[in-house]
Design a protein that fits this description.
Strand content of chain B: 5-15%
CATH superfamily of the largest domain in chain B: Type I PLP-dependent aspartate aminotransferase-like (Major domain)
Helix content of chain A: 40-55%
Shape of chain B: globular
Structural class of chain A: alpha+beta
CATH architecture of the largest domain in chain B: 3-Layer(aba) Sandwich
Strand content of chain A: 15-25%
Order of helices and strands of chain B: EHHEHEHEHEHEHEEHEEHEEHHEHH
Distance between the termini of chain A: 29 Å
CATH class of chain A: Alpha Beta
Structural class of chain B: alpha/beta
Distance between the termini of chain B: 41 Å
Strand order of the largest sheet of chain A: 1-2-3
Number of strands of chain A: 3
Strand order of the largest sheet of chain B: 2-8-7-6-5-3-4
Number of helices of chain A: 5
Largest sheet of chain B: 7 strands, mixed
CATH topology of chain A: Sufe protein. Chain: A
CATH topology of the largest domain in chain B: Aspartate Aminotransferase, domain 2
Largest sheet of chain A: 3 strands, antiparallel
Oligomer: heterodimer
Number of helices of chain B: 13
CATH architecture of chain A: Alpha-Beta Complex
Shape of chain A: globular
């Protein structure tokens, strides 16, 4: 069995698939990857501006089962966290949770980049100093 | 239900093949090189009969068949064997970018011994340009190596025309015919192929045994052995013969000779149905490779904006196929064959190869059609680039943040 139970579960029952209105100031969109690489993740967050808490998160991913599971898991983890808490999510947390094998670690890296991308987009749209910096892996 | 549509990767043994092999494990376990007792003689008889059946399939002389462990070994024997044997004539080999790794890696390895290799490009449909081939031949050219049918797309090269060019310039013509032998007529003498490599396990025979056809008459070709130690197979391939494997291989060849045409007819209809249904029920499907010069049982389709491994996950418990996606390869590179066709990495990542076989039923094809349509739609609902395409975004203008 090449995939872990958790990856299969996220793949068969992905959480939070969808699209938020990116024109809203409360929505941040992270779009990472490229079709030529076989991986594109779009992760969106909706932030409550008064509490800086992420109240909703949605994703869509073009990629393999592990990529889809990584981004699905990311949206689950984001909901209810503050921006600062969300910035502490590390790709290795995703690797551990999903038991990703070494060849699939890059999927978790992309998910972490997508999270940071969404936060950076939200911050720059709202004139907040961008604290989300995508790691140079 | 378990549906196997990955026959280009390997084929199940035909039960008739296994039946003929069994006695050679128990009652007739002799070494075919044992000259002095009935055990040896029986084994030799089994091998001789198999060799004849295989020769009949190819319309060649049994003396022109050398048994090996498989197509990879046969490719190595042909290419390295010719290079070493004809060193005084030259060092230039011409092959094609879409060949199997067994040919490409062997050619690459030979550069360490002073070989010069030309890799011909292919057109979008996977065919080589005959004038480019002719232009590439020079006085130092000793071998042209072109596969009969491609394993990923099923595309069949213009073998007779290539043979004529090689004949004109006095260059040896070798072909890796693994995907073609036993499925379409492959008569090396009729097209001018001087060496031909293939394996048993792609034609409903057992794994672990293959063959190399080496022409003995006009021209008389020789290859330097790559396996030394006993001089078996006319000194060209030492090592105890895989008697049960060869017996099975021979039976597979006999069956293929009898049933090849009816199999091909039945399978091309099923393949056409699969292709027709998928391309009519799903948008943005692209068939890869020339559809006219193609194996009857293969179709390679790209489902745009859907990644291959992910798509396979929607049905791989029930249906076996292959993909050109990077995620499915050990090297994490997308299929080099599809890239050579000029597909673009994104379409390579989205490709699925369906290869039908003797045991594929219409019921299985109908099942596969439904699962594929459902799977592609499911994946497109998850895909941000499908959403963008539907919104009318020109994806080629998007600034992707690659890393």
């Amino acid at each position: 069995m090449a995939y872990s139970e958790k990856v299969l579960d996220h793949f068969q029952n992905p959480k939070n698939v969808g699209t938020l209105d990116k024109s809203k100031s409360t929505v941040g969109t992270g779009l990472v990857g490229a079709p030529e690489c076989g991986d594109v993740m779009r992760l969106q967050i909706e932030v409550d501006p008064t509490t800086q808490t992420i109240i909703d998160a949605k994703f869509k991913t073009f990629g393999c089962g592990s990529a889809i599971a990584s981004s699905s898991l990311a949206t689950e983890w984001l909901k209810g966290k503050t921006i600062d808490q969300a910035l502490t999510i590390d790709n290795m947390d995703i690797v551990e949770e999903l038991a990703l094998p070494p060849v699939k670690i890059h999927c978790s890296v992309l998910a972490e980049d997508a999270i940071k991308g969404a936060i950076a987009d939200y911050q720059s749209k709202n004139g907040i100093a961008v604290t989300a910096i995508a790691s140079s892996h | 239900m378990r549906v196997y549509l990955d026959n280009n990767a390997t084929t199940p043994c035909d039960p008739r093949v296994v039946d003929t092999m069994v006695p050679y494990f128990y009652q007739k376990p002799g070494n075919s090189a044992s000259r002095n007792h009935p055990f040896g003689w029986e084994a030799e008889e089994g091998v001789d009969y198999a060799r004849e059946q295989i020769a009949m399939l190819l319309k060649v002389d049994p003396k022109e068949i050398i048994f090996t462990s498989g197509a990879t070994e046969s490719d190595n024997l042909a290419i390295k064997g010719v290079f070493e044997m004809y060193k005084s004539k030259g060092n230039h080999i011409i092959t094609v970018t879409t060949e199997h790794k067994a040919v490409l890696d062997t050619c690459d390895k030979l550069t360490e011994s002073g070989a010069e290799i030309t890799y011909l490009k292919v057109a979008e449909d996977g065919l080589i340009d005959l004038s480019e081939l002719e232009a590439a031949i020079k006085p130092t050219t000793i071998l042209v190596s072109v596969m009969w049918a491609n394993n990923e797309t099923g595309v069949i090269q213009p073998m007779k025309e290539i043979g004529a060019i090689c004949e004109k310039y006095g260059v040896l013509f070798m072909s890796d015919a693994t995907q073609a032998v036993g499925k379409i007529p492959t008569y090396p003498k009729e097209v001018g192929v001087h060496l031909m490599a293939w394996t048993s396990h792609k034609m409903y025979g057992p794994k672990g045994v293959g063959a190399l056809y080496v022409s003995r008459k006009s021209p008389r070709v020789k290859v330097t052995a790559q396996m030394d130690g006993g001089g078996h197979e006319r000194g060209m391939r030492s090592g105890t013969l895989n008697v049960p494997g060869i017996v099975g291989f021979g039976k597979a060849a006999e069956i293929a000779r009898m049933e090849m045409h009816s199999d091909a007819e039945r399978l091309s209809k099923l393949r056409d149905k699969l292709e027709r249904e998928l391309t009519s029920r799903l948008e943005e499907c692209y068939i890869n490779g020339n559809v006219q010069y193609r194996m009857p049982h293969v179709t390679n389709i790209s489902f745009k904006h859907v990644e291959g491994e992910g798509l396979m996950m929607t049905f791989n418990q029930n249906i076996a196929v292959s993909s050109g996606s990077a995620c499915t390869s050990a090297s994490l590179e997308p299929s080099y064959v599809l890239v050579a066709l000029g597909l673009g990495d994104d379409l390579a990542h989205s490709s699925i190869r369906f290869s039908l076989g003797r045991f594929t039923t219409e019921e299985e094809i109908d099942f596969a059609i439904e699962k594929l349509v459902a799977g592609v739609n499911h994946m497109r609902n998850l895909s941000p680039i499908w959403e963008m395409y539907k919104e009318g975004v020109d994806l080629s203008t998007v600034q992707w943040s690659e890393h």
